[in-house]
Amino acid sequence: MNPRHVRSPFREAVIDLDAIRANVAHLAATVAPASVMAVVKADAYGHGAAPVARAALEGGADWLGVADIDEALALRDAGIEAPVLAWLHDPDARYDGAIAQRVDLGVSSIAQLEAMADAAARAGRPANLHLKLDTGLSRNGILRTEWDAAVARAAALEAEGRIRVRGLFSHLANTSPVDDRDQLAAFLDGVAAAERAGVVPDVRHLAASAGALRVPETRLDLVRIGIGVYGLPPFGDGTTAADLGLRPAMTLRGRVAAVRHVESGTGVSYGYTWRAPRPTTLALVPLGYADGIPRHASGRGEVVIGGRRHRVAGRVAMDQFVVDVGDADVAVGDEVVLFGDPADGVPSADDWADAAGTIGYEIVTRIGPRVPRTHLEAP
Ligand SMILES: *Cc1c(COP(=O)(O)O)cnc(C)c1O
C-alpha cells in the first residue's frame, strides 16, 4: 500500500524523498557545470539527516555539508561515505575524530589551521581542509587582513604533507546582486592570493541556494544548496517553489483531536484573543509551539481539513491550537494538514512563515522532536 494513503497518525511530518531527489537533480542541472553540495545541517533542516543525505546523493549531489563535526560523524555512523564538509567548530575541538573519518573541515582562523595540522600529525594522515575567507558577511571566516598569512602557512603545511587544501570558500550576505558581486570579487582576490602562495584548491565555492539561483556567476566550481534541496524558496519575496521548479518535501499533518459547536461570543484559547463572531464549530489540532508551530501565527496561520482552509482561532498553545471551521463537516480523527506542497492546495511553510513574521527556514527547522518523521519512498 502507498503510505500516502495510510490513515495519518496523531502528529507527523511526512518527508517525500522523491521530492528531495527531484529537487537536487533539478538544481544540479541548473548550476551545471558546477557541482552540488547538499547542506544537511540541523538534521537536514528538520527533515532527517541520513535519509535526506542518501536521497540527495542519489539525486546527483557530490558533496554533503553540515555545520558541526558531530553532524558529519553521524552521517559516517549511518554508513554514508560521500565527501562531507563541516565548517563551524567548538573552540576546544581537537579534530582527531573528524580526520580519522575523512571529514573535510572548514578553516576560519590560523589557530584552527594549526590545530587541524596537529590533529593530522597525530592521525598520521593529511587533513582535508577548505579555507573560509570572510568576504563581507562578518560572521565567520579568515579576516581579509590575515588571508596572506593564512595561505602562506597552508602552503607550508601542505608541502609537509600534513594538510591538503581541497577548497577555498566564502558565504554571501544575499543583500543584493551588487553586494553579492562585490563579495565574489573579494573572494576571487583571495583565490589569486592563494594561487600566488602555491595553494590551488580542487573546488572554489561561494553560493548557497539564493546566490546559485539569482547570481549565476557566483556558482564557481560548487554550490552549497540547503533550502532548495527541501523544495523551499530561499528568497522570502513571494517567489514560490513551483516558480523555481522545486517541490516542498515536508508535509506537516495530524488528526483532529476534538470538535465542538460554540455560541456566538465564546472565547477561545488563552487570553480570549478570539471570540466566535457567530455560532460556529471549532476543531482542535494537536500541534503547538513545542512542536514548532509559531505562537506568533496565532489568529493568522491556516490549515486544510477535508480540502477546505481554516484559520487558527486564538492563541497557539504549547501542544495544540483551535481552528474555526465554520459550518464545515469536520469530525474527530479527520486529517489536518498544516503545510506541504501548495500545488496540492495546502498552505506552504512560507505561508506559516508569513503568518509568524519569519522565514520558511525557521518553520521547517523548528519542528520539534515530538513529531515523528516518516520518510516516503516512491511507491
Ligand atoms: C546553511 C548554509 C548553507 C545553505 O544555505 P541555504 O540558503 O539553505 O541554501 C550554505 N553555506 C553555509 C556556510 C551555510 O551555513
TrEMBL record:
Domain of life according to the entry: Bacteria
Active site: 41 (proton acceptor), 270 (proton acceptor)
Pathway(s): Amino-acid biosynthesis; D-alanine biosynthesis; D-alanine from L-alanine: step 1/1
Domain Alanine racemase C-terminal positions: 249-376
InterPro entries in the record: Ala_racemase, Ala_racemase/Decarboxylase_C, Ala_racemase_C, Ala_racemase_N, Ala_racemase_pyridoxalP-BS, PLP-binding_barrel
Binding site for substrate: 139, 318
One Pfam family linked to the record: Ala_racemase_C
NCBIfam families tied to this protein: alr (TIGR00492)
Main enzyme class: isomerase
EC number: 5.1.1.1
Catalytic reaction(s) noted: L-alanine = D-alanine
Annotated source species: Agromyces marinus
Positions where N6-(pyridoxal phosphate)lysine occurs in the chain: 41
Protein name stated in the entry: Alanine racemase
CDD domains: PLPDE_III_AR (cd00430)
Function, in words: Catalyzes the interconversion of L-alanine and D-alanine. May also act on other amino acids.
Recorded family membership: Belongs to the alanine racemase family.
Keyword annotations: Isomerase, Pyridoxal phosphate
Names of required cofactors: pyridoxal 5'-phosphate
